[in-house]
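Methods, example record. To illustrate the input and output format used throughout this study, we show the complete record for DUF4183 domain-containing protein. The sequence lines were provided to the predictor; the line carrying structure tokens was produced by it.
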Amino acid sequence: MINAGDIPSIQAGTLSKRPVNPECGSLFLDTRNRVFYRFNGIRWELLITTVNLGTYGYSAPPIPLQTSNLLFFTYSDGVRSVYTNKDGLVEYGITDIMSPNEVSYINLFINGVLQPTVNYKVEKGKLTLLTEDIPMKGVVIILQFISIYQL
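The corresponding predicted structure is encoded as:
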């Protein structure tokens, strides 16, 4: 049998529930006797015996993961390589630099460009730029804190 997505599917149930007018090549799984049948165009023929059906019963789908995405914004002053919570711009995001232990991922963007992790160090309340050059005055610095969790 071909389902609506044009994908072959297998019907299942007790032997008495086999399709009445199957197409040639249709498959049916007898769930009581654990046997596969194939319709050859004339009759149902035994195809595979002793099918392992696994555990019976309904298993609820997993609970979807939740995420949060918090952003810390500041501007470079053109001099410092260390920024703290007091440098955060409350009108654009959070003003706390979170600990790496509190979140799943941290990304740093300087002037909109994602920085490799070797270029910076994040501690609770503190961002340290590890590069020799300092961003020019007025350049936007964004720390992104991503948390992935299950309720």
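Annotations derived from this record:
DSSP finds no helices and eleven strands in the chain.
The chain has two domains: 11-48, 66-149.
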